[in-house]
Amino acid sequence: MHKPPYTIRDADWDDDRLALTHVRRVVFMQEQGVPEALEWDADDAVSRHFLAEDTDGHPIGTARLLPDGHIGRMAVLPFWRRRGVGTALLRHVLVAAHDAGFPAIELSAQTHALGFYERFDFVAFGDEFMDAGIPHRTMRLEF
User: Using CA atoms, how far apart are residues 21 and 122, in angstroms rounded to an integer?
Assistant: First the structure.
């Protein structure tokens, strides 16, 4: 089995801020048009962060786990999509959430990504809602 051309690791908001914000800036702000005022929040300082990097150490994906068990800000740079990065990143976050003792986790999924999360047994519930002008559904996974 060959080694993927990327790694996933736990990241520190203070030490890895430039890498984490780079991915989110490209995906959410530039690609999806999320206003800067909505992208950065107080949850960044208290969340557990995860970073996907290519073999040269460049950031290619990110996610965060909030103290209440919500997964958020999951993003993969366009070039790296459909190459297993999102899957590896989400698996890493799920292990961290399980190991932290959460009985279940939730996330707000952009509706185009519902199928991705359903592959991990997340179940959508509630009505569709708009967040930063993008349709979302809340999803939950019970461990």
Answer: 26
